[in-house]
């Protein structure tokens, strides 16, 4: 079953490039470096705990190649061959744009859960440390920052 957590559409050369999280993740894996289709499927299963179907991976790779975002090359492995895929310069540029959009989406989703340490100003996603100082409940990233803050008073 495909994960459909993210639906993002790009109109690059008139074609919808990214339709779900699985495809986004394929781009992320290619951004890491050259991979063959089976390696992509294995990485998805290992890292996300979900199986990626060859009927998802290979047509998407061919679509990316047709759009000029990916290049393929045949590699001889013993008596067999495999196809390795890598991003082109336009493919890397596409990934950078998509990653920025994804970062914006994720940031806006978790921002309400973010807190700033009263002492050092770092951002804490969750489980900020709280202490009451002079009758005010303050948030810190850790006990050490709370102690340092109280020592500055």
User: What oligomeric arrangement do these chains adopt?
Assistant: single chain
Helical fraction: 40-55%
- What class do helices, strands and sheet pairing give? alpha+beta
In DSSP terms (H or I, runs of 4 or more residues), the helix count works out at: 5
The total tally of domains equals 2
DSSP summary, beta strand count? 9
- Low-pLDDT ranges: 1-19
| CATH H level, superfamily name of the largest domain | Winged helix-like DNA-binding domain superfamily/Winged helix DNA-binding domain
CATH architecture of the largest domain: Orthogonal Bundle
Radius of gyration: 22 Å
Biggest pleated-sheet summary: 3 strands, antiparallel
- Read across the widest sheet, the strand sequence of neighbours is 3-5-4
Distance between the termini: 57 Å
Name the average pLDDT: 85
Overall geometric form: elongated
Describe, in short, the structure shown.
With 153 residues, the protein is α+β, with helices and mostly antiparallel strands. It is built from five helices and nine strands, in the order E-E-H-E-H-H-E-E-H-E-E-E-E-H. Mean pLDDT is 85; it is low at 1-19.
Please characterize this protein's 3D structure.
The protein is an alpha+beta fold. It has 2 domains: 100 residues, Winged helix-like DNA-binding domain superfamily/Winged helix DNA-binding domain (Arc Repressor Mutant, subunit A), CATH 1.10.10.10; 39 residues, no CATH class. Helices cover 45% and strands 24% of the residues. The strands form 4 sheets. It has a 3-stranded antiparallel sheet. The longest helix is centred in the middle third of the chain and has 22 residues. The relative contact order is 0.12. The N terminus is likely disordered.
């Amino acid at each position: 079953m495909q994960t459909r957590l993210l639906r993002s559409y790009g109109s690059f050369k008139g074609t919808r490039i990214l339709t779900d999280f699985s495809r986004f993740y394929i781009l992320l894996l290619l951004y890491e470096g050259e991979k063959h289709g089976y390696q992509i499927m294995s990485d998805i299963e290992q890292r996300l705990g979900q199986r990626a179907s060859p009927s998802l991976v290979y047509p998407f790779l061919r679509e990316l190649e047709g759009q000029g975002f990916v290049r393929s090359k045949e590699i001889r492995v013993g008596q067999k061959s495999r196809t390795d895929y890598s991003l082109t310069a336009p493919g890397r540029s596409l990934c950078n744009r998509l990653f920025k959009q994804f970062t914006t989406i994720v940031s806006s989703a978790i921002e309400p859960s973010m807190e700033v340490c009263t002492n050092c100003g770092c951002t804490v996603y969750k489980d900020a440390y709280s202490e009451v100082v002079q009758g005010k409940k303050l948030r810190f990233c850790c006990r050490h920052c709370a102690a340092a803050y109280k020592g500055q008073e």
